[in-house]
Amino acid sequence: MPRRLSDEEIEAYLDSRPGWAILTTIDGDGFPHSVPLGYFRLGRDIVMGVRDRTHKVANVEANPNVSIMLEDGSTMADVRGVLLQGHARIVREPDEVLQLARAGARARGVPEPEWPTESKPGVAYIRMTPVRTRSWDYSDSSSDRG
Phi-psi category of 92—alpha, beta or left, where left has phi over 0 and alpha has psi -120 to 50? Predict the structure, then answer.
């Protein structure tokens, strides 16, 4: 059995940016809609930049319950991941978009003089606040620390 990651390990894992975040929303017909997106963590929230007026944006506006999954590893001996379930909202107000764009640049290690100074037209953010977290780590499955 895999062990669960501690809260500190989950934060470190998310901050290590192991790959794309898979955002799953629910279509109007009830089917899941999953897409890979870049992301960064802002406090407890996960933030993803998107083009406004896309399918995923419409889905979040219709139903804010989403999940985000990240996983890495190439064999069962080193697979680990995190599933976050929570409530999302679309951010498109220009001042808040700029604030998030600057936070994303900071999270990516962009030097401050290169941070955006104005929001770009057509850009929005999906900001998700987790309410439930699941995690798994097969790299140390002999341990029962979770």
Answer: alpha
Contacts of 22 by beta carbon, 8 Å cutoff, 6+ apart: 34, 35, 36, 37, 68, 69, 70
The predicted structure's pLDDT at residue 141: 54
- The pTM score is 0.90
pLDDT at 144: 42
- For residues 29, 124, 23 and 106, what is the CA-based torsion angle, rounded to 10 degrees? -170
Average pLDDT, the chain: 93
Residue 140 has pLDDT above 70, yes or no: no
How far apart are the C-alpha atoms of 91 and 89, rounded to whole Å? 6
- Hey, what amino acid is at 52? D
Distance of alpha carbon 88 from alpha carbon 13, whole angstroms: 21
